[in-house]
């Protein structure tokens, strides 16, 4: 398992007239968590893109539990529970400053060749960085 945490403050433009975060922004928060995960692995997304691999989102599921508000500080937790092969499934949770669960979901990201736009196996660079976090007995995607 590989797990990261990223904290951000809710910005005014992410809220509606009631000061509540618009539902579409949680997907952006998930992306901030994925970007942090890649940085902590030592391979920011731009490094993979320069190597000719793109990471499109192919599936998203989000469940909303409670609203986030203007002024809240949110913690985005990103967890990879299975070693990836052709895609990576990220389980993500967002908590407020009181450690209350705001929302959770899964994001499935594929790996594609930037020229052919065809799916490829997990890039070697990525595989080498994430492999130490998994044991031989865990299921791979």
Low-confidence stretches: none
Query: Could you tell me the radius of gyration in angstroms?
Result: 16 Å
N-end to C-end Cα span: 13 Å
Q: Label the CATH architecture.
A: Roll
CATH superfamily: Hotdog Thioesterase
User: Mind describing the biggest β-sheet?
Assistant: 5 strands, antiparallel
> What name does CATH use for the topology?
Thiol Ester Dehydrase, Chain A
Which structural category do the helix and sheet elements fall into? alpha+beta
> What is the level 1 CATH name?
Alpha Beta
Total of helices: 3
Overall 3D geometry? elongated
Instruction: Give the percentage of residues in beta strands.
Output: 25-35%
The helicity comes to 10-25%
- The succession of helices and strands, N to C, reads EHHEEEEEEH
E-strand count: 7
Strand sequence of the main sheet, in spatial order? 1-4-5-6-3
Mean of residue pLDDT?
A: 93
Number of domains: 1
What do you see in this structure?
The chain is an alpha+beta fold and 141 residues long. The chain has a single domain (2-132), classed as Roll (Thiol Ester Dehydrase, Chain A). The chain contains 3 helices and 7 strands, in the order E-H-H-E-E-E-E-E-E-H. The protein has helices spanning 25-41, 45-50, 124-130; strands at 2-9, 53-54, 57-64, 73-80, 87-95, 101-110, 112-113. The strands form 2 sheets. It has a 5-stranded antiparallel sheet with strand order 1-4-5-6-3, covered by helices on one side. A two-stranded antiparallel sheet has the order 2-7. Strand 4 and strand 5 form a beta hairpin. The protein is elongated, with a radius of gyration of 16 Å.
């Amino acid at each position: 398992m590989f797990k990261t945490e990223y904290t951000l403050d809710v910005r005014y433009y992410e809220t509606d007239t009631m000061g509540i975060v618009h539902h579409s922004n949680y997907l952006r928060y998930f992306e901030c968590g994925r970007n942090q995960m890649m940085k902590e692995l030592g391979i920011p997304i731009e490094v993979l893109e320069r190597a000719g691999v793109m990471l499109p989102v192919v599936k998203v599921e989000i469940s909303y539990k409670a609203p986030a508000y203007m002024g809240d500080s949110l913690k985005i937790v990103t967890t990879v529970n299975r070693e990836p092969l052709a895609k990576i499934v990220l389980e993500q949770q967002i908590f407020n400053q009181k450690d209350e669960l705001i929302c959770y979901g899964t994001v499935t990201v594929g790996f594609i060749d930037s020229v052919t736009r065809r799916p490829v196996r997990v890039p070697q660079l990525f595989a080498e960085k994430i492999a130490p976090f998994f044991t031989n007995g865990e299921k791979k995607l």
